């Protein structure tokens, strides 16, 4: 049996099955990237709910795995060389799992890097901008009288959706007919923008038919539906 005692996070979130990949997460757009990919891969794993509403990601145990205090994070007991590996940052975890399994990332080097660039597009653009729209439109930021920040993020979010719209013209997925970690990285964010954040009309989402159709295709996948609910709140 794998010994994960070197990872202090396991003291707060004990591993019942330490031979399985350990996921520490919540059902945020960043968190569900990893649970969706794990469900798509069919890899056995153990999910631990980290209550970010109670600042559990800022506890010493969680910070020992991710000093940046953000979900998701993983421990793979069967990492490189057969040694346990801890990882944080959702984009890095997607790349690691895709490359480890050889799935949801193209084998061709040129297409592989093309896929990675779209993952980085999500990490650098879609995530931060959509998140700011959520804050200033739906959450505490909406109480700020100065609406210039919201307008800034609204305009940029609409522009980013337009980039996706252009990319998806005549394509089923970001990488043509190949569903990849690029799609997985963005599905939860686009879903939240028009769902939880209530910004459908704000950004004029219905102007982007290609993106809407892509989102519908993605959300119809059984693994995506499962992943969006993992880990369950406790």
From TrEMBL:
All residue ranges annotated as the GST C-terminal domain in the record: 108-234
Signal peptide interval: none
PROSITE patterns linked to this entry: GST_CTER (PS50405), GST_NTER (PS50404)
Pfam entry (one): GST_C_2
Entry-linked SUPFAM superfamilies: GST C-terminal domain-like (SSF47616), Thioredoxin-like (SSF52833)
Superkingdom to which the source organism belongs: Bacteria
Domain GST N-terminal: from-to ranges: 18-105
PANTHER family named in the record: DISULFIDE-BOND OXIDOREDUCTASE YFCG, GLUTATHIONE S-TRANSFERASE-RELATED
Protein's recorded name: Glutathione S-transferase N-terminal domain-containing protein
């Amino acid at each position: 049996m794998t010994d994960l005692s070197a990872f202090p996070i396991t003291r707060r979130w004990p591993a019942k099955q330490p031979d399985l990949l350990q996921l520490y997460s919540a059902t945020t757009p960043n968190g569900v990237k990893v649970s969706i990919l794990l469900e798509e891969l069919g890899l056995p794993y153990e999910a631990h709910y980290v209550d970010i509403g109670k600042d559990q990601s800022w506890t010493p145990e969680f910070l020992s795995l991710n000093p940046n205090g953000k979900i998701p994070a993983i421990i793979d007991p069967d990492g490189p060389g057969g040694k346990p590996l801890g990882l944080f940052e959702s984009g890095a975890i997607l790349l690691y799992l895709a490359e480890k399994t050889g799935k949801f990332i193209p084998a061709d080097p040129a297409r592989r890097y093309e896929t990675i660039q779209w993952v980085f597009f999500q990490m650098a653009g879609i995530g931060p901008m959509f998140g700011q729209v959520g804050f200033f439109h739906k959450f505490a930021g909406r109480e700020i009288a100065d609406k210039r920040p919201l307008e800034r993020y609204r305009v940029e979010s609409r522009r980013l959706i337009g980039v996706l719209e252009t990319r998806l013209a005549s394509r089923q997925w970001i990488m043509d007919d190949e569903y990849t970690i690029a799609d997985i990285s963005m599905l939860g964010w686009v879903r939240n923008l028009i769902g939880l954040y209530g910004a459908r009309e704000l950004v004029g989402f219905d102007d982007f038919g290609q993106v809407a159709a892509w989102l519908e295709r993605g959300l119809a996948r059984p693994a995506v539906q499962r992943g969006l609910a993992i880990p369950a709140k406790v």
